[in-house]
Specification:
Helix content is 54%, strand content 0%. The protein is mostly helical and 97 residues long. The chain is globular, with a radius of gyration of 13 Å.
Length: 97
């Protein structure tokens, strides 16, 4: 079972991986309140997609679970914007696993 805390840890680990390829001033902070989607996003769309792909790859590689986060974004409400929202979405997607 994937708890909120475990999913948060997984997201933060994937952020660390992405940050390795970014200049320090572009690093994504490991903070649930960081805005990652929408007009006030602290990351550009390419880094957002990189995070999503990194998470999808992680779950397939480490848990043999195929998730489609980009597809899930079309089914969410307009309130999605933060890392916390991403963890909640992951929990929802993985609740059936």
């Amino acid at each position: 079972m994937f708890t909120f805390d475990l999913l948060q840890e997984i997201v933060f680990e994937n952020i660390e991986t992405i940050n390795k390829d970014l200049p320090e001033e572009s690093h994504l902070k490991k903070d649930l309140e960081v805005i990652i989607f929408g007009d006030n996003s602290s990351i550009d769309s390419l880094n957002f997609v990189n995070l999503v792909i990194s998470l999808e790859d992680f779950f397939l590689r480490e848990h043999n679970i195929e998730i489609f986060l980009l597809d899930a974004f079309s089914d969410i409400d307009d309130n999605f914007e933060s890392l916390k929202d991403l963890v909640i979405l992951l929990k929802k997607l993985l609740s059936n696993e």
